[in-house]
Amino acid sequence: MVVRKLLCTNSRFVKVILMSATINCKEFADYFAVPVLNKMTPAYIFEVEGKPHDIEVFYLDDLKDIPQAKIAAHYSDEPLISKEMYEVATSLIHLFDEMEKEELKKGKMSHKAYIESNSVLVFLPGLMEINYMHELFTNMVQKRLHVYPLHSSITLDEQNLVFMPPVIGYRKVILSTNIAESSITVPDVKYVIDFCLTKTLVCDEETNYQSLRLSWASKTNCDQRKGRAGRVSKGYCYRFVQKDFWKNIIPENVIPEMLRSPLGSTILKVKLLDMGEPRALLATALSPPNITDIERTILLLKELGALAVSGKRENENPYDGELTFLGKVLAQLPVDLQLGKLIVLGHVFGCLEECIIIAAALSLKNFFAMPFRHLLDGYRSKLSFSGSSRSDCIALVDAFKSWQSCKERGELRLSKDELEWGKRNYFQIKRIREVAALYDDLKKRISHFNMHVTQPARDPDYNFKQRFILQIVMAGAFYPNYFTFGQSDERSAVRDLSAKDPRTTVVLKNVPNYSFLYYKQIQSLFRQCGQVKSILFDGSRAFVEFSRNPTERFKTLTAVYLALKMAQLKIPLILNVHPTEDIEKADDTITSLKLSRINVDCQTQTFESVHVAKTMEKHLETLDGLTLSVNITEVVEVGHFWGFSIDTKSMAILEELATNIRQQQLVPLTERPHSNMMCLAPFTNKDSESYYRAQILYISGSTAMVFFVDYGNKSQVELTLLRMIHETILNIPFQALEFKICKMRPSAKSLICGEQWCRSASERFDALVNGCALMVKVHSIVHDILHVDVYRHFENLEEKSIRDLLIADGYAEPAEESYESNQSNEVLKELFLPECNKKPYKQGFAKEDEKNQIEKMLDKFTQNKLGIQQCKAVLHGPFSPYEVKFHSLMRVSKFRSVWIEKESINSVVLNEAPEAPHQRIFVAASVSVNASGSVIMLRETSLLPPIPGLPALISMLFAPVIELRVDGARKHYTGVLFGLGWHHESGTSIWPEHDIELAFDVHFSVDDLVKINLLRSTINKVLRQNYNGSLNSSYERPGFFQEDIREKLLNLIQKDKPREVITPKWYEKLYQWNQVDPKWLIDQSDRTDEERKADVYQLHTFVMLNP
């Protein structure tokens, strides 16, 4: 377009040569026609012929030997692949053997060509179709085929397999998308099977999200695919459409990209050229875009901040806008527009290095390896790099920096070592090198805008603050791709999980009768996830609980995420079982156990028939009341600790235990030590060493980390010092108690400066609880943890609550207890009423004869001593009722289903605090829709910390325009509407589809809004400075503003006193703009300053509140 304009103006004697194997030559020749003797003369066309071996083409009509081809032909009108079509393809591939034998007999093929590889290339539209057909071949018997998927998402190592020759006697089958049309050439392909389908990237008219839609490939594309055969010998191409359909329906050429893809980058480049209004220049393109697409793109660029949002909207041109500094940068960066904005905001907020890494990584193929048949291992690796951030982008940053650090230390000097390191960590080294190259290129490009990667001064909490600020920057760059949790029913979730701990437990369904017989099989199914602690069998359900380290902080186990991921990846869970009739025929007394709830302890290999819930019973045996005096022995984190009761009864039990152990002859371990093994371990106290009951947490070399089950502390012990434990000692209940302070959660300050609790909060808590006896009041018992109020007596004999002290110091804030905790609290109150002599809480285990019956059955059936024939049972799951569904905040997609790509670490998310009333914000770097527009697909996602009010704060900080909602008395702000504002003439929304309405769940003051405007103003100031600066500008000035912005941001979010939690009240006229009387509005912007009209963020207008 620009070349053509310049050729017609100031560059008439410049020669332009266009080369392609597939373009429509006449169309381009006419477009570049030049006036000669009063008429337009097309450009010259030179054709260079190049012909491979002959390729014979067949259609569905020609496949008379395959019965399914006649049926499949009836389904060929719609762009889809029916089951019959897949069967035609597989049958045809098997026929190739017969065809080649026939050619050999007739002398049309040499014996050498017959025994050599004659590969098949199957063109399919997408990964889902590849997976389906791959499964068909996998289930075939005596297939003698090597089947390889070829898709852009699979690893480079897997892609390289398609070039390997197959074993003699086997045929190679490549299942590929259009990546094999031109990007990859496999020389030994003789047969091409083409379904004549493709997935085309289009822009959804409603949401402006991109979507891959299934459509018929053009004849140009199909001819390109045909050329993949016949490279070394005669080839055959089978098109799975009828001849008439090919002639009359299949399009000649693809729809031009300008008519189906976003125009954002194109319009910014046009604006940068300063050659007139974008609409006028684009009208001269070979395939001019639709005028409505241009208008929608202008709105998108204003929402992004690349074009300025005018204060006087009645004068705005819907087809043009003023280019901001952000727009100038974005036009010159070779990345997506939102990724370019991420880089600019990274510069502003002092996390430029991390943002460049993210932009480079997201611009190229993902360097995390997700092998086609080892997706769970790839997911595990990515999960480990994300740490506790729940962010795909932060996982990319940490992974890239890890590779970079290893390179700098010289650990990956040899290519072999680097490849091995990448294989071990599920990295694709070639792709991470490409990211590194783009990272360096982007650094050079942005240096022209006075943006440089610097090393700031680091305080002790720097890494945590940096991670949080990076998450805020990502939210700003990817606005308005915001999502939140769907409604959760905590009571139903507790019931569905049978009151088990959601952090450690998953559910299996469709479990066969007498399923406890197969507990070892179930245990082995989850071996790749983690160590199974116990399995509770309840009817057709089984609750699989994983082991957790008792000295680690509260969090959902990685094993739970991996188990739930197995269900998402549709990894089959199959048991070899005995038919119910045969089991009952073999032992007629067994039917009494058919509906029993049986708990299997996988660590001790013991079985219990559980008739009542036993959530609290082991503690109720030792508790004489709800008030205890305790010694704390191990602090796990703030508010979470281990200790033991120091009342007379407990101390007598501990003394008796110590005496019994001293009197025994201690014997070294007779079996190999392992995790969760019970033993006796030494501990030195006041120069005196004694042995105590202990559990091995993990083994490292010649030492073991052990947990003392009667005191709650841990210690590193030499393996040679561990001793066997006698069963009589083991049967005494453990005396250590696990505590958690109730009705408290981390404050914003703690969440920002730490994993959950900041360093100073941990130091303060340690100082409060260590070295003294504490009094605790038990509120509830949940999953064997005592939720308590903790009190300490100070020197002035004043008793103070530890929770109140932490809240007063700003480290914690009040919180609601969970439904389970409140239910437990009610039970405990009843059990410990003064009029009750003793707790009527009985054990729910079966009698000894029931246990014997279970063990007898296990002995018979697990070894199959009766010779009963086995069959297969397919389990459903695993599931968790706490798994989260997301909803979009944006109006146009609010009621659409939301899916997260399977490679994302957030493809499995659990709601760890369903009792919390505040919203969580979830940000996606990339959003697309399915072909029908009913499902939104999210990629590269980040779940931000659970800070009350954070969704509203982030949205107000980065939204182009807001309108505040107030209550009837105009005393409080109740919510806010975000978007591009409204037309002053009609009063309607400028872009209603992208509006977001939020009801506040915490109280916001005028002071908060002033701080937001101050932040927006400082961001503009930094960007204006960069715009007016040059390469010779000092780095110190931007650094000063960056520190100022970071401090302002943290002060806005982490207030000294937590924001008051309020019940959300939705505005009655949702998504309606201009609802406030103008006389109550306070406009802080300076409309007379011409320079500020091109700012990225205009200052928000306030609503004056009544005192």
UniProtKB/TrEMBL annotation:
<dbReference type="InterPro" id="IPR027417">
    <property type="entry name" value="P-loop_NTPase"/>
</dbReference>
<feature type="domain" description="Tudor">
    <location>
        <begin position="672"/>
        <end position="732"/>
    </location>
</feature>
<keyword id="KW-0378">Hydrolase</keyword>
<dbReference type="Pfam" id="PF00271">
    <property type="entry name" value="Helicase_C"/>
</dbReference>
<dbReference type="InterPro" id="IPR002999">
    <property type="entry name" value="Tudor"/>
</dbReference>
<dbReference type="GO" id="GO:0016787">
    <property type="term" value="F:hydrolase activity"/>
</dbReference>
<dbReference type="Pfam" id="PF21010">
    <property type="entry name" value="HA2_C"/>
</dbReference>
<keyword id="KW-0347">Helicase</keyword>
<dbReference type="GO" id="GO:0003724">
    <property type="term" value="F:RNA helicase activity"/>
</dbReference>
<dbReference type="InterPro" id="IPR007502">
    <property type="entry name" value="Helicase-assoc_dom"/>
</dbReference>
<dbReference type="InterPro" id="IPR047384">
    <property type="entry name" value="Tudor_TDRD9"/>
</dbReference>
<dbReference type="Pfam" id="PF00567">
    <property type="entry name" value="TUDOR"/>
</dbReference>
<feature type="domain" description="Helicase C-terminal">
    <location>
        <begin position="91"/>
        <end position="276"/>
    </location>
</feature>
<protein>
    <recommendedName>
        <fullName>RNA helicase</fullName>
        <ecNumber>3.6.4.13</ecNumber>
    </recommendedName>
</protein>
<keyword id="KW-0067">ATP-binding</keyword>
<dbReference type="InterPro" id="IPR001650">
    <property type="entry name" value="Helicase_C-like"/>
</dbReference>
<dbReference type="InterPro" id="IPR035437">
    <property type="entry name" value="SNase_OB-fold_sf"/>
</dbReference>
<keyword id="KW-0547">Nucleotide-binding</keyword>
<keyword id="KW-0963">Cytoplasm</keyword>
